[in-house]
Structures are given as structure tokens and as C-alpha cells.
Design brief:
- Helix content is 5%, strand content 50%.
- The protein is built from one helix and nine strands, in the order H-E-E-E-E-E-E-E-E-E.
- Strands 3-4-5-6-7-8 form a six-stranded antiparallel barrel. A two-stranded antiparallel sheet has the order 1-2.
- The longest helix is centred in the N-terminal third of the chain and has 7 residues, at 21-27.
- The model is unreliable at 1-15 (pLDDT under 50).
Length: 153
């Protein structure tokens, strides 16, 4: 990611540049136009869902359209970082799998989100897809919690 500076005094020529990945992603999202820039390529996103248990799916943005209104993403495997009674803390592994899929850029003053259908084995029986919204992993300060596979329905 390059050198990270904490304040303008540390930067060459006193320039001001965002210092965190989340700040750079926020700056690369235009809430009024509903667009993102190429800064989002490589960003991890996630969706959390379920009834009676919490499931988490990760994806990684692999391409931003010329208009910035859509992105291509691929699913990413999860690594378990922490375990406790009835919950696991997971983060994306970076190990992509499956075909790429298109998501539409959405969002608000809170930041960007991405909505669309993605490949999922328990999704729609006809298409094998699930419709949902993804949020940036960079918005969390740590792992994302899910119900372990042996604890749900």
C-alpha cells in the first residue's frame, strides 16, 4: 500500500493524502453520483445474513467499470481468526474462487455498498444465485462474526 503518513508534517512538501485504506476508499466514493474509482480494485467486501444463525460471505472487487457505477467481484474464502462459544471471527483470505459477478454501486453518507446477485450454492434453485448487498471489510476494526457451521440450523 505504500508509505503511511500520520500527519502533514511527515509528508514530502506538506501534501495531504489519506492515511488509511478506509479513508482512501471513502474518498474514492462519490455519494452524489453513486460511483467509485479504480481505488476500489482489490478491496474486500462482505455480506452478513441468516435466520437463527449468522452467515458471512466475502468477495473481492477485481474491476471497476468505466462509469464507476458497477464493479466486478469474485468470491473469497474466509479464514477463522477467533473462536468462542457460539461465534467465529472471520476475515477474507484473499483466495478467490468461482466466476466473476457484477454488483451495482449503492451507498449513502455512511459510504459505499454494492448490490447484486452472486453465485451461492443455497441460492435460487433456478439460477444458483443469491441477491444481497455487500459492505467494505475496511469499515470494521477487526474480524466479522458468524455462527460456526456446527452451531446453526
Amino acid at each position: 500500500m505504500g508509505t503511511q503518513y500520520n500527519d502533514t508534517a511527515d509528508r514530502p512538501n506538506g501534501t495531504t493524502q489519506p492515511t488509511t485504506r478506509r479513508k482512501r476508499l471513502d474518498d474514492a466514493f462519490d455519494v452524489d453520483a453513486g460511483t467509485v474509482t479504480d481505488e476500489w480494485e482489490g478491496a474486500f467486501i462482505y455480506t452478513s445474513w441468516g435466520y437463527g444463525q449468522t452467515n458471512v460471505n466475502f468477495a473481492q472487487i477485481v474491476d471497476v467499470s468505466d462509469s464507476g457505477k458497477t464493479v466486478l467481484a469474485r468470491m473469497v474464502r474466509a479464514d477463522v481468526e477467533t473462536r468462542s462459544n457460539g461465534t467465529e471471527g472471520v476475515l477474507p483470505s484473499g483466495d478467490q474462487y468461482g466466476e466473476s459477478f457484477r454488483l451495482h454501486v449503492r451507498g449513502s453518507d455512511r459510504g459505499a455498498s454494492f448490490r447484486g446477485s452472486y453465485p451461492y450454492i443455497d441460492g435460487d434453485p433456478e439460477s444458483g444465485e443469491r441477491l444481497d448487498s455487500f459492505l467494505p471489510v475496511a469499515e470494521t476494526d477487526g474480524s466479522i462474526h458468524r455462527t460456526p457451521a456446527n452451531r446453526g440450523h
